[in-house]
Write a structure and sequence with these properties.
Layout: E1 7-9, H1 10-15, H2 17-25, E2 32-36, E3 39-44, H3 47-78, H4 85-94
Parallel strand pairs: 1-2
Antiparallel strand pairs: 2-3
Length: 95
């Protein structure tokens, strides 16, 4: 299906729900954009596509958090607020 064929009015969703579900069961991967009064209002996608998009978002959030930690570490190093590995390990051994 072409991208233009994936934009459907809400009336199509109402009258073809079973067909839409069956198309996803048959392997359709592209989401369907549902419009109301000519304006995009929602997206219908397979559960597999939804789960994959959630996994991607979670990975991106984890990567973003990691990058923030690296940036914070670099900022602390630049400010002289870092300790050597030896000092860190020695401090751990005290406990």
């Amino acid at each position: 299906m072409a991208a233009a064929e994936q934009v459907k009015p809400i009336s199509y969703l109402k009258s073809h729900t079973t067909d839409i579900v069956n198309s996803f069961d048959a392997g359709q991967e592209e989401p369907i954009i549902i419009t109301q009064n000519g304006e995009a209002k929602m997206v219908v996608m397979s559960i597999d596509a939804y789960r994959e998009s959630r996994r991607r978002v979670e990975r991106m959030e984890e990567q973003h958090a990691f990058m923030k930690l690296v940036a914070l570490g670099n900022k602390e190093i630049a400010a002289g607020d870092a300790v050597t590995e030896e000092a860190f390990l020695a401090d751990l051994d005290k406990d």
